[in-house]
Amino acid sequence: MTRPPLHIRSMQLTDCDRVSQIRVRGWQHAYRDIVSDAYLDKLNAEEDAELRRARFGRGDGVQLVAERDGEVLGWAAYGPGREGEVPEGNGELYALYVDPEHLGGGIGHALLTEVTERCASYPRLYLWVLTGNTRARRFYERAGFRPDGTAQSFEAGGEEVFEVRYVK
């Protein structure tokens, strides 16, 4: 049986609930052994959706969704590099998440390809990956991204979490 085609489109305000579900499930799936269980278990898709709706349309980059047969299965956000995050004049992939139930089905690859094509005018495209997220690191490396030697940390649930910067 052939799957319906995947469609990449601009995110709409009505997608916020589903995008937040994907984002929260993505964190809980990908970061389970990296970030504390207590922090991950407290993540709430409804609260995240409220933040998404409040931020929607503010010009914080471009947000895309991947949908198949009317169901949103993945989300990506990108735009100009954030000040202090990447060298000025470059692009940045801010986020890319796929519903964990649909990993390995080409959705992340399709979103990343679309973002890369849309960011072709930037000399470089940067992104950040949690150091311990081996699956994501391999995914980005297969797509031609490489760590550039820059690392940073942030606080999640009272614990320091480390991430590395990749560039293409």
Secondary structure topology:
Layout: E1 6-10, H1 16-30, H2 37-42, H3 45-55, E2 62-68, E3 71-80, E4 91-98, H4 107-118, E5 125-130, H5 134-142, E6 146-156, E7 159-167
Would you mind describing this structure in some detail?
The chain has five helices and seven strands; from the N terminus they run E-H-H-H-E-E-E-H-E-H-E-E. It has helices at 16-30, 37-42, 45-55, 107-118, 134-142, and strands at 6-10, 62-68, 71-80, 91-98, 125-130, 146-156, 159-167. The model has no long low-confidence stretch (mean pLDDT 94). The longest helix is centred in the N-terminal third of the chain and has 15 residues, at 16-30. The chain is α+β, with helices and mostly antiparallel strands. Strands 1-2-3-4-5-7-6 form a seven-stranded mixed beta sheet. The chain is 32% helix and 33% strand. Strand 2 and strand 3 (71-80) form a beta hairpin.
